[in-house]
Design goal:
- The structure holds two protein chains of two kinds.
- By secondary structure, chain A is mostly helical.
- Chain A has eight helices and one strand; from the N terminus they run ααααβαααα.
- In chain A, 40% of the residues are buried.
- By secondary structure, chain B is mainly alpha-helical.
- The chains are: A mainly alpha, B mainly alpha.
- Chains A and B meet through helix 2, helix 3, strand 1, helix 5 and helix 6 of A and helix 1, helix 3, strand 1 and helix 4 of B.
- Strand 1 of chain A pairs antiparallel with strand 1 of chain B.
């Protein structure tokens, strides 16, 4: 991808192609983050589209404040997820068979990964919302602690503590099966 | 607590090394041997959680989302442009358009007249059409113009369908929809004074009691229950809605107030209405047929759009027909009062050997409960029903609303399963059972 700063700057001036490139770059990542967070593939599709529409509407207000563009985009995704979860009064059941993995050349590996994903998705439903947010951002989107802190509006120390407690809780759930 | 905080920091550091630098768990544990027992299970959990980074959206969803996002990008760009001009008053835009068109070569405008939506001069064509609509004053002329434009839109849709340009078809369908809606709206325009120029009243019979039967269907065709009949109607329709017997045959009570001059003035308008009616009847039949013919050879990418175009044209022409019927019924309230005095029922021209209206005939309808039997405007009697049943029918607005709802449901019943079937072949195998269920449900529920 071209220099992200120049792409974002052109997108802010109305360059369709620049925004389209940003869209292509982050689409899968945003979707991945959302689907792991809420555990529902169909809802994640809708929310993903909402995120990019929202980004399109408000890209003019984006400012470089020491955080990458991705942090701003994930922030929008985080807010959309929060809104979605607020409307849902109960925990989401996980339509595990709808979450799609990248195709593997080795069928056995693909099947094993599918099982691992099922275990992970199931375990994710039993940790807190904040812990889930940190896991999704750190492990699926591979953002740094600093970036995750900007997305979630917390301090770096708080993110590290959340991350630790999240992994402990996740380990406990996955070990229980 | 301190140990926990330290462990959290070490865990974070190890995560950075494993996730970003590709180090192994063993390498990390070697850095912090004092914490190895606590660290190892946590790092193993993190590695198993990394399966989530292989999650991907479905290809069909991604393609659909990309298309919709591109549309949103274009819409956002167009909005910015519109905002730039929004401060100008509408007349300034018209004046600017006129001046621009005058300054631009006449050849350009003429060349644009035949341009298609994927050609550079098409915006000029659209602007010219808008200008024509703006400067056209009478409702009748506007309706005629909209009808001609609708005909052009259908030709454009067929052209785009052959080229497989589904995006351009959608915007052309919107324009077609607008043209047809405007015809229906103009058809409903009531005039306080029937003599007002250019008003588009329905084609009411010349005098009360004279009943206009729709043209008989051609052989082999089912008898139409509505006004829109078979192919040969257009030639006969003007005859059917002719102003009536020659002046000399009119009874004195039937003569138009204002005398022969007023009647002569009405003849061109009556002929104009008849001409428009004939054109609309022709279009109502031809447009859906042409679109269906295009559908047979169209590429799969445009079939859903073509089906939508067919459904819209059928539904809108039905509305136009209904608007013309209602207008005729409504006008019957006024025109017989103002133009033709009401005749008692017993004095009306009898039907051929039958006192009850036959199928598909237009007969006087009850206007309001307060009026006497003699004071009726015109309403179609449904087949098999007697006039007395018609008298007790619900108010016109409810009938219209029901008819609109029915038309919408008919169109959805056709479009929804078809659109789902279109997507079926591009859907992954795992999703097909779900999609087939959706097709079954939409089909059975409608």
């Amino acid at each position: 991808m071209q220099d992200e700063k120049s792409l974002v700057s052109r997108a802010q001036k109305g360059d369709e192609e620049a925004f389209a490139q940003l869209y292509e770059e982050y689409f899968n990542k945003i979707y991945r983050y959302i689907v792991i967070r809420i555990g529902d593939a169909m809802e994640a599709e809708d929310i993903t589209q909402q995120v990019f529409l929202k980004a399109l509407q408000s890209i003019g207000s984006f400012k470089w404040k020491g955080a990458p563009f991705s942090a701003w985009l994930y922030r929008i995704a985080h807010n959309q997820v929060v809104d979605y979860l607020r409307k849902k009064s109960r925990r989401t059941t996980v339509p595990l068979d709808e979450i799609q993995l990248a195709a593997e050349h080795n069928l056995q590996e693909e099947v094993e990964k599918g099982f691992d994903l099922q275990r992970l998705a199931s375990a994710m439903q039993h940790i807190t919302e904040s812990q889930r947010a940190v896991i999704s951002l750190r492990f699926t989107s591979e953002l740094s602690t600093v970036e995750v802190a900007k997305v979630l509006g917390k301090s770096q120390g708080a993110i590290k503590a959340l991350q630790h407690s999240a992994v402990v809780a996740l380990r406990k759930r996955m070990a229980e099966g | 607590m301190r140990k926990s905080k330290k462990l959290a920091n070490i865990l974070d550091e190890c995560l950075e090394l494993i996730l970003l630098n590709g180090e192994s768990i063993e390498q990390c544990l070697q850095r912090y041997p004092g914490y190895a027992d606590d660290l190892k299970p946590l790092l193993e959990t993190i590695l198993s959680a990394r399966v989530a980074s292989d999650v991907e959206p479905r290809p069909e969803f991604r393609a659909r989302a990309r298309y919709q996002f591109r549309l949103a990008l274009q819409e956002a760009k167009a909005k910015k442009r519109r905002r730039f001009f929004s401060w100008q008053p509408a007349w300034a835009t018209v004046v600017a358009t006129v001046l621009t068109l005058v300054l631009v070569s006449g050849v350009t405008v003429a060349a644009a007249g035949n341009s298609m939506p994927d050609e550079p001069l098409y915006p000029v064509k659209v602007a010219t059409e808008q200008l024509q609509l703006t400067v056209t004053r009478s409702s009748l002329s506007k309706a005629e113009l909209h009808a001609r434009l609708a005909d052009k839109r259908v030709a454009e849709i067929i052209y785009l369908a052959h080229k497989g340009k589904s995006e351009a078809i959608e915007s052309t369908i919107q324009r077609l929809n607008t043209n047809l809606l405007r015809i229906a709206a103009l058809s409903r325009v009531q005039s306080e004074a029937p003599a007002a120029p250019g008003v588009l009243p329905a084609l009411a019979p010349a005098k009360p009691g004279r009943q206009i039967a729709p043209p008989e269907p051609a052989k082999g065709e089912p008898a139409p229950s509505k006004v829109l009949p078979g192919p040969s109607t257009s030639e006969r329709a003007p005859v059917k809605v002719s102003p009536g017997p020659p002046r000399s045959e009119l009874a004195p009570s039937e003569q138009i107030p204002g005398g022969p001059e007023a009647r002569l003035k009405r003849i061109p308008r009556i002929e104009g209405r008849a001409k428009l009616r004939a054109a609309l009847i022709r279009y109502a039949k031809n447009h859906p047929e042409a679109l269906r013919a295009a559908l047979k050879n169209a590429p799969p990418s445009v079939r859903a759009a073509l089906r939508r175009a067919i459904a819209i044209s059928e539904a809108r022409y039905k509305e136009v027909n209904r608007a013309l019927e209602t207008r005729g019924a409504g006008a019957g309230e006024q025109e017989p009062h103002k133009v033709w005095p009401q005749q008692p029922r017993s004095e009306r021209t009898p039907q051929k050997g039958s006192s009850e209206p036959t199928r598909g005939e237009v007969v006087p309808k009850k206007v309001l409960p307060k009026r006497s039997l003699g004071e009726r405007s015109f309403q179609r009697v449904p087949p098999g029903q007697s006039r007395s049943r018609v008298e007790s029918d619900v108010p016109i607005q409810r009938i219209k609303a029901r008819a609109n709802l029915r038309a919408a449901i008919v169109s959805y019943a056709k479009n929804h399963p078809a659109a789902l079937r279109d997507v079926l072949q591009d859907t992954s195998r795992s999703d097909r059972p779900t999609l087939r269920r959706a097709i079954d449900i939409t089909g059975s529920r409608s």
